[in-house]
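Recall that a protein's primary structure is simply its ordered list of amino acids. Everything else, from secondary elements to tertiary packing, is in principle encoded there. The following example makes that idea concrete.
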Amino acid sequence: MIQFNDENIIKQLLNKRVIDMTGQELVDLIGSAVQQATMRSDMSEHKEKKHLHGKKEIADALTVSISTISRWLDNGTIHAPAVIRADRVLLFDYDLVLKQIQASEGLRWKARHDN
């Protein structure tokens, strides 16, 4: 069995016709593809998320007022899964909140808040 990180062997197998491969070469090539896909998936899942606690923190991060955050929560501009309510505590996923605001408010909001 080949080491999946040996790029030269993988390149050779990719240039080889499937009908000319041995069973082991085909298994190795598929294993390499699965390993690469798993690594990409793991990297995207472990991307560090920025979570903010409370309306003040998200308002400060977005450079808007707390009343604007309240209005967006009330009218549904910001909604689950970007915000989680646990008892009286609000937890905001900054990236999801940003996407929801941009989808709702469009270029008007983006132009005012891009640096």
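The longest strand covers residues 89-93. The first helix runs from residue 7 to 14.
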